[in-house]
From TrEMBL:
Transmembrane intervals: 12-30, 50-77, 98-120, 132-153, 165-188, 194-219, 258-278, 284-303, 324-349, 361-383, 390-411, 423-442
Pfam families xrefs: MatE
InterPro entries tied to this protein: MATE_fam, MdtK-like, Membrane_Transporter-Flippase
Stated name of the protein: MATE family efflux transporter
Keywords: Cell membrane, Membrane, Transmembrane, Transmembrane helix, Transport
Native species: Hypericibacter terrae
UniProt membrane topology term: Multi-pass membrane protein
Gene Ontology MF term list: antiporter activity; xenobiotic transmembrane transporter activity
């Protein structure tokens, strides 16, 4: 831990970024394995089963997004206190974050479980899809607590710069999920065939295992954070502070999720060909942004720790280098995608020339500004790490609701571009948001926020835990 802390606070910035980013990128790639595995096995049940999973995913994503701000707040505070050398408060943040995440997940999961039938009715789900979607959605809501707990574990581990252990856990659980999916979906021996519900149940089991391993690691305290049972006493002052810090993060993620749903409705108005092209292009975009997301998370950790240590200028240099790397990697990916767009689409839909042509057009248009995605992700990560989550929320709101959706609507409905106007809204939005992000970053106002200077977090609960565990 001391060697890693020295690297993060004093060592070569490029080496520190790569050290953190590579395990995060690999973890993010592996986590897509949950969706890919479910899609692989559920696809063998037929179109209705695939539709059931597709309908359920946006709803459960929104619920998860609502609670993700708490994990963001925990990661931000953890990284700053780690940089400031306050191990006692790092441990306290972990304990309080666990309490908040557990309570929030139970409430949201219970609400989702009860409201699931009404949500499906609101979405107008077809009768042949309804039962499968209801079962899948309800099992997913039961598992929300495990999703939240493991997301908390990952976020806090990133905050202290420990990114390898989450990678190992995700690797093991993805492999296990691939084995459990066919067992639960199709049955074997005494195990009955559960159909599409079996896919959700397999994911629930593996996520529960991941969450349990995360809690055990915290209790053992060998990887930068130690969880004390006596610290699991609600600290109202901290909870209030973390909620106010994390709420904009929840709004930001929810906004992005809702924006994708609204865009899907607009795309659907142009028919099957446009929907198919959008589906393939969106999948490619999600895969392409994984490296930039990993780099942005590495930037977040390093910026948070260096701000906590008082290294404000180094935090700014980290952001600039991370932004340049994110821009370069995604620009290179855009160039490759532009050249091989038809071949990429044909991997997903090999026998439909019209879809291949339209999907390739979509990819080529939006790939023109992929580098700008790397810019905004890394700069927004620096804002979050400094505690300025409100800025990140405003950028998300402006991006989705003031630029992309209005632009997509006007270009597609009121110009000769028609459906192609949807495609052009992506690069235009990315360029404009990147410019806004750069200008906001250049103002430097984010540098004045240092959460570790606030003393209210050190409550009597923390002091008692420190004394009892012999830390001082």
């Amino acid at each position: 831990m001391n060697d890693r802390r020295t690297l993060f606070l004093e060592g070569p910035i490029a080496r520190a970024l790569v050290t953190l980013a590579i395990p995060i990128i690999l973890t993010n790639i592996l986590q897509t394995g949950y969706q890919l595995t479910d899609a692989f096995w559920v696809g063998r049940l037929g179109a209705a089963a695939v539709a059931a999973v597709s309908v359920s995913f946006p709803v459960t994503f929104l619920v998860i997004a609502l609670g993700s701000g708490l994990a963001m707040a925990g990661a931000t505070l953890t990284s700053q206190y780690m940089g400031a050398g306050r191990q006692d408060l790092v441990n306290h943040v972990a304990a309080q974050t666990m309490i908040m995440v557990a309570i929030t997940s139970v409430i949201l999961g219970a609400l989702g479980y009860v409201l699931a039938p009404y949500l499906l009715e609101l979405l107008g789900v077809a009768p042949d899809v309804h039962d499968g979607a209801l079962g899948f959605m309800r099992v997913s809501f039961v598992g929300v607590i495990f999703v939240f707990l493991y997301a908390m574990f990952q976020a806090l581990m990133r905050g202290v710069g420990q990114t390898r252990m989450p990678l190992y856990i995700v690797l093991g659980t993805v492999i296990l999920n691939f084995l459990l999916d066919p067992l639960f979906i199709f049955g074997w021996g005494p195990m009955p065939a559960l159909g599409v519900v079996g896919a959700a149940l397999a994911t629930l089991v593996t996520q529960a295992l991941a969450a349990l391993l995360g809690v055990i690691i915290f209790l053992r305290g060998r990887h930068g954070i130690r969880l004390f049972w006596r610290a699991l006493v609600p600290d109202i002052a901290y909870i209030k502070r973390a909620f106010l810090l994390g709420f904009p993060g929840s709004v930001e993620l929810s906004t992005r999720g809702l924006g994708l749903m609204i865009m899907s409705f607009l795309v659907a108005s142009f028919g099957t060909l446009t929907i198919a092209a959008y589906g393939v292009g969106s999948t490619i975009l999600q895969v392409v942004t994984i490296p930039a997301m990993g780099m942005s998370m590495a930037v977040s950790t390093l910026v948070g720790q260096n701000i906590g240590a008082g290294n404000i200028d180094r935090a700014a240099r980290i952001t600039r280098l991370g932004t340049l790397l994110g821009f370069a990697v995604l620009s290179l990916a855009g160039a490759v995608a532009y050249l091989f767009a038809p071949a990429i689409v044909s991997v997903f839909i090999p026998n439909d020339g019209d879809v291949i042509a339209e999907g390739a057009r979509f990819i080529r248009i939006m790939s023109l500004a992929w580098g700008c995605i790397g810019i905004q992700l890394c700069i927004v990560a620096a804002f979050r790490a400094s505690g300025n989550m409100l800025i990140a929320m405003v950028i998300a709101l402006v991006s989705q609701w003031m630029i992309q959706f209005p632009l997509a609507y006007v270009l597609s409905k009121h110009t000769v571009l028609l459906a192609h106007g949807l495609w052009w809204s992506f690069p235009i939005t990315n360029v404009l948001v990147a410019i806004v992000s750069i200008c906001w970053f250049a103002r430097g106002s984010w540098k004045s926020t240092k959460l570790t200077e606030e003393s209210r977090l050190t409550t009597q609960v923390v002091q008692e835990a420190i004394i009892e565990e012999g830390i001082r």
